[in-house]
User: Which sequence fits this backbone?
């Protein structure tokens, strides 16, 4: 929708709301006032509220009618001395004007843009925030399409909260919160589901002090020492793009040649659209130089894989095209890469524990399953190293060691998932991962293929009911209540320069349910 269309919407009736968004007020209420930048400010409800709290606000929107509404609201709701604290301008959030200095707060509230434009807006936000400052993003979550009410109905305009957090983390910010929250909507029978993300840029003195202090820190050992649960910690990814690449790998896989540039942008857009993720892969140990390398697209819900080969960067266009289809078309696995694929994170440049814990496990597994095993780039959850992703099932195991990794994979291939090392099934969100792990632990042993999702309902901000439809040997119908809690802030990776809050997902009730029509 262009600015003229928004002009008509704003001009068609009275101001929509004078109250701030509930998530904005919750996350910003305790902050020390400073300079704020409100991107896509609309009629200014958040900007006016911030100004009332003592902030100097630059409020930008591409609708002239909206900007005029902001100015009118400032004159109406702010006292004479504070009116000048809101600088309302007509400007596009993806083509920012010159703005002097950095901001202590950058706000993006319901700014829904296609993937490439949102990436640019988030990049600009990250670059504009001052050391010690924060970025707050509030939007309709992608799950709102099927489980919520209102908001855009185009999936290209909606991202999961977790993906927004990943994008900000890749821009050098510390993601303190990335959640899907339930918001009650007046006169609606169901709540809306919002993506709520809070990220910050470390203060310069914090970076210097903590980096020096934690130079020998090992996140996997610290996680074990604080008895951090491993359940429901798998990344939520439905579709995986695997590209064989001998290295060296950059800290972010997407920055590794020959990907940067237009190809990388297309991969990012496809990943956002398809709930996907890029992994670079290579064989453990020294390997002879190969001219022809593999790529694969794996859909973990359908459990199917498309295979291809590449020689030149241009050949990867086919991989991206296969990544961005509605239905992945299965092709036979090549003899040199039989399924299941066993991907062990061994990404040294991303995290020390991934190298020290992951590489020995990859080599040990390769002694038994030489053609199945690959090293891979960051899988998320460095502190659970060594991490293993099995495809096409999407099962993620963590805390593997050379002494037990073969036995765990042997049991898995024999139809008995080892729940003590199970991080989750990546095709599903974390509440579902928790429910599935509980089902296996209580009613197993069983293979991951016996698990099926029937429905998931969010019953409160931090609670869900998950209905599972399972196959033998599990009960046919299971229902789990899952709650989310926050752990004390801690360092979650070897390279962390600030503490971060991790979340636990706990099943409080698991019960069999009768057949339902």
Assistant:
């Amino acid at each position: 929708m262009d600015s003229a269309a928004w002009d008509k919407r704003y001009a068609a009736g009275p101001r929509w709301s004078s109250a701030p968004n509930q998530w904005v007020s919750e996350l910003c209420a305790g902050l020390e006032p400073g300079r704020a930048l409100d991107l896509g400010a609309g009629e200014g409800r958040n900007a006016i509220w911030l100004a009332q709290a003592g902030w100097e606000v630059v409020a930008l929107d591409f609708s002239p009618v909206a900007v005029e509404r902001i100015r009118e609201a400032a004159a109406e709701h702010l006292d004479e001395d504070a009116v000048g604290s809101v600088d309302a301008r007509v400007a596009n959030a993806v083509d920012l004007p010159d703005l002097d200095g950095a901001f202590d707060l950058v706000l993006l509230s319901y700014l829904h843009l296609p993937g490439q434009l949102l990436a640019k807006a988030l990049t600009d936000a990250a670059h504009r925030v001052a050391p010690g400052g924060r970025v707050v993003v509030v939007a309709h979550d992608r799950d709102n399409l099927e489980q919520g009410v209102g908001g855009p109905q185009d999936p290209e305009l909606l991202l999961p909260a977790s993906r927004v957090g990943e994008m900000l983390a890749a821009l050098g910010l510390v993601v303190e919160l990335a959640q899907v929250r339930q918001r009650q909507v007046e006169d609606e029978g169901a709540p809306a589901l919002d993506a709520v993300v809070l990220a910050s840029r470390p203060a310069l003195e914090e970076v210097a002090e903590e980096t020096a202090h934690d130079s020998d820190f090992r996140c996997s050992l610290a996680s074990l020492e604080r008895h951090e649960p491993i359940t429901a910690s798998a990344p939520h990814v439905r579709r995986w793009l695997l590209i064989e690449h001998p290295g060296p790998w950059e800290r972010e896989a997407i920055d590794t040649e020959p990907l940067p540039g237009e190809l990388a942008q297309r991969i990012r857009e496809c990943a956002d659209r398809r709930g996907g993720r890029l992994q670079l892969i290579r064989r453990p140990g020294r390997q002879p130089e190969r001219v022809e390398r593999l790529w694969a697209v794996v859909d973990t819900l359908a459990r199917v894989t498309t295979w291809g080969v590449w020689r030149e960067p241009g050949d990867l266009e086919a991989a991206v095209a296969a990544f961005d289809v509605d239905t992945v078309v299965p092709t036979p696995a090549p003899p040199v890469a039989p399924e299941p694929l066993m991907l062990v994170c061994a990404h040294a440049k991303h995290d020390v524990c991934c190298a020290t814990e992951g590489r020995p496990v990859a080599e040990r597994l390769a002694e038994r399953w030489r053609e199945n095993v690959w090293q891979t780039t960051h899988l998320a959850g460095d502190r659970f190293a060594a991490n293993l992703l099995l495809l096409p099932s999407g099962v993620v195991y963590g805390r593997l060691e050379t002494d037990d990794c073969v036995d765990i994979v042997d049991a898995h291939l024999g139809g008995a998932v080892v729940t003590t090392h199970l991080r989750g099934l990546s095709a599903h969100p974390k509440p579902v991962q928790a429910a599935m792990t509980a089902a296996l632990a209580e009613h197993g042993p069983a293979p991951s293929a016996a698990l099926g999702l029937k429905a998931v309902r969010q019953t409160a901000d931090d609670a869900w009911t998950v209905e599972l439809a399972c196959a033998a040997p599990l009960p046919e119908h299971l229902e789990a209540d899952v709650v989310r809690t926050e752990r004390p802030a801690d360092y979650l990776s070897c390279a962390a320069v600030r503490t971060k809050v991790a979340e636990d997902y706990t099943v409080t009730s698991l019960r069999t349910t009768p057949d339902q029509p």
